[in-house]
TrEMBL record:
Subunit structure: Interacts with BRI1.
Protein function: Serine/threonine kinase that acts as positive regulator of brassinosteroid (BR) signaling downstream of the receptor kinase BRI1.
Record keywords, A-Z: ATP-binding, Brassinosteroid signaling pathway, Cell membrane, Kinase, Lipoprotein, Membrane, Myristate, Nucleotide-binding, Serine/threonine-protein kinase, Transferase
Domain Protein kinase: 55-318
Keyword Kinase: yes
Biased composition (Basic and acidic residues): 305-316
Name of the protein described by the UniProt record: Serine/threonine-protein kinase BSK
Regions of compositional bias (Polar residues) in chain numbering: 317-328
Gene Ontology CC: endomembrane system; plasma membrane
EC numbers: 2.7.11.1
Region annotation (Disordered) ranges: 1-29, 305-328
Catalytic activity: L-threonyl-[protein] + ATP = O-phospho-L-threonyl-[protein] + ADP + H(+); L-seryl-[protein] + ATP = O-phospho-L-seryl-[protein] + ADP + H(+)
């Protein structure tokens, strides 16, 4: 890992900036809750990522093979950061990229990874965000294959919480939403990567061609729901045919080994179907419905767990009593 460093481009008459001092109580996930949106020197990011060493690569998204995410360190004692590097500059006007990054960096939500800053220098486009230490949804779901049903419901709820917040502050578009852009923080909670808030204009427009607008945020969320149901990695364009005419029990991930609620899975499948039929951009109506439905499943899950514990305890007592009454 390269050495930790920090700087911001300065005018000739400016003094070096003070490193932001963040009280421990305001830190989120060893990150930077109140960190100001910062324009970083390319030299600092190069040093922090050990000259963009292949050893520091942490991205695994096959859909974004043209871009790479690195682990880096810009400030000592404040944790690591993630650096997204665009191999091909995806914008015609650097000012657009800068303004988009500045605006996205102002967003604050517990389910959204904090975007710390950017670098637009020497034809390089770089974004810097908090580092999430517990992998992606894609890795847990498609590779490790050990995610319980209750956790899948929780992940779906956390993602739509982030999307609903973004929508409420007029960020109704998100570039390339997928299981790869859902990250887990140090507490194991799902968070949405902030990198997708800064859109890649050229590739984004090209992807909108065709009959299925798979760049649509609501559609993409529907694809993630299908991922959570089936445990399968699928192309967004194939998601509708994956669930069309299928019974929920046919679709469910065999790695769950039957440990799921058919009623809950049916509700999630219905939500997925609605999302995959959505034609326009994400709107308050659909996000509010998704939040309300998935939140209700969370509450029901908590009640069910409590009731199941009580039922198990009563069953144990009854079993013990019946055993005492049995003849030798």
């Amino acid at each position: 890992m390269g050495g930790c460093c920090f700087s911001t481009p300065l005018d000739n008459n400016q003094q070096p900036p003070q490193q932001p001092q963040i009280p421990p109580g305001e830190r989120k996930n060893d990150g930077f809750v109140n960190w100001p949106v910062t324009e970083f020197f390319l030299s600092d990011i190069t040093t922090a990522t050990n000259n963009f060493s292949s050893d520091e690569i942490i991205s695994e998204n096959a859909e974004e093979s043209s871009n790479v995410v690195y682990k880096g360190c810009l400030l000592e004692n404040l944790g690591f950061v993630a650096v997204k590097r665009f191999k091909n500059t995806p914008w015609d006007d650097p000012d657009y990229f800068t303004e988009d990054a500045k605006t996205a960096g102002e967003l604050k939500h517990k389910r959204l990874v904090k975007l710390l800053g950017y670098c637009c220098e020497e034809d390089e486009g770089l974004l810097v965000a908090e580092f999430m230490p517990n992998d992606t949804l894609a890795k847990r779901l498609f590779q490790e294959k050990n995610m319980e049903w209750s956790m899948r419901l929780r992940v779906a709820y956390h993602i739509v919480e982030a999307l609903d917040y973004c929508n409420s502050v007029r960020f109704d578009e998100y570039d390339n939403l997928s299981a790869y852009t859902v990250l887990f923080d140090k507490d194991g909670d799902a968070c949405l990567s902030s990198f997708g808030l800064v859109k890649e204009i050229i590739r984004y427009n090209r992807r909108e061609g065709g009959n299925v607008r798979t760049g649509n945020v609501t559609y993409r969320f529907g694809t993630i729901l299908v991922n959570l149901l089936t445990g399968l990695q699928i192309s967004p364009s194939h998601a509708p045919e994956m669930i069309n005419g299928k019974d929920v029990t046919e679709l469910m991930d065999p790695n769950l080994k039957g440990k799921f609620s058919t009623e809950e899975a049916t509700i999630v499948l219905k939500l997925a179907s609605e999302c995959l039929q959505w034609k326009g951009y994400i709107e308050n109506g659909i996000t509010k419905k998704l939040v309300a439905t998935l939140k209700a499943l969370q509450a029901k899950k908590e009640i069910s767990s409590s009731e199941m514990h009580e039922v198990t305890k009563q069953h144990d007592v009854a079993s013990s009593s019946s055993q005492q009454q049995l003849p030798p």
